[in-house]
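Hi U.,

Before I forget, here's the chain from the pilot set. I'm dumping it here mostly so it's searchable later in email.
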Amino acid sequence: MLRTWVEGIDAIMARDPAARSRLEVLLCYPGLHAVAIHRLAHRLWTWRIRLPARLLSHLARILTGIEIHPGARIGRRLVIDHGDGVVIGETAELGDDILIYHQVTLGGTSLVAGKRHPTVGNGVILGAGAKVLGPIVVGEGARVGANAVVVSDVPAGATVVGIPARPVDRRPAGADLLPYGTPCDETLDPGLRSLEQLRAEIAALSARLAALEAEARKPRTPASAGEGG
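Structure:
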């Protein structure tokens, strides 16, 4: 338990330039507190001491604004930055070295018992407001952009943005770690570029149609009468 505390503090120090000391992180970072309480609640859950486990997770939610079901499986060095509004469901599985920003939901899309929440691989970044829904897999090293809605598997190393989330061609230069996740802009998103192309084509067709209509409205010159003999 002590080792996970130390690892969690070091992970926050490495990823948050606002963290000035380990003592500050220990005392002032709700993401660290929520994860620590979750590890205890999860242990009780696996021992089938279910009600105390739920009470602990409820206490963590009251104190931190972060809701992690005690059944969720969380790897090492998880960083929840800011954290308010984060929800991690019962059957979610998270690997190591994951970074989650505020308002992220790892939610279910089914009321049927069993696996219904996402599996998130090592080194994933989930941008602010991202919604990852259903028993899907977010591959190792993937990036999920801010406010993206992910409802299908994300390949390892991919970056996805938008609603519904779509892969983008590349990451911005030097963007191994983007605060709050990858933005959804048309320089990255092929979907937006396609829409812009369609808009341009429609504008060109509209202009051509207007020209043809104007041509059709022009008065026609009567045909010259033939000369008499």
